[in-house]
Amino acid sequence: MRLAILCLVASTVLPPLSRAQAPVFTITPEDSSIKFHVKASVDLTGTFEKWAATLTFTSPDVTTGVLDVKIQAASVNTGSGMKDGKLKSKDFFDVEHDPLITFHSTKVVQTGPDTFDVQGTFTIRGVSKPETLTLTVSGKGTGSGAITGTMAFDRKDYGMNSGIPFIKIADRVEVNIDLHGKRVSGPALVYKQ
Predict the structure, then answer these.
(1) Which residue ranges does the record assign to the Lipid/polyisoprenoid-binding YceI-like domain (predicted)?
(2) Cα(85)–Cα(126) distance, integer angstroms
(3) Residue 8 pLDDT > 70, yes or no?
């Protein structure tokens, strides 16, 4: 009986072996950015000022990575109060009812020495659909580096069917991420060559 209690206590207090041997990274928002671009008759490019991203692994194998991005939709900044107001409205981001835009990766596929297709669930306006983020990694083996990439989606798939007065806008939206981070503990990641 004592052995069973000791094992139970040890399993709740001590980290699992696989977790202890997994790399741990932090993303530094002050060096990073999340931007978007939509082809339009008037430039429609902007950034999100408030967001958080995490990158976690269950082992040193880079394909075990899970990328989570949470964006405060109301933090959109196009440099134009009129455009920002329209994007925050119920016609686009609907920040009052759905304040977060999220991406949660479900699979990482290495497509080249430094490139990856990151499949995941993208949610905007409360609508979730599978999307793929195409990434390039720099700084391999140094303990710090950058993840840059693009995800494109059709805004109408997420219920953003309206336009902006006097501006003709395309349906395709490109989201560009530039995430800088560093390994704070654990072993280096293992890549396929």
Answers:
(1) 24-182
(2) 19
(3) no
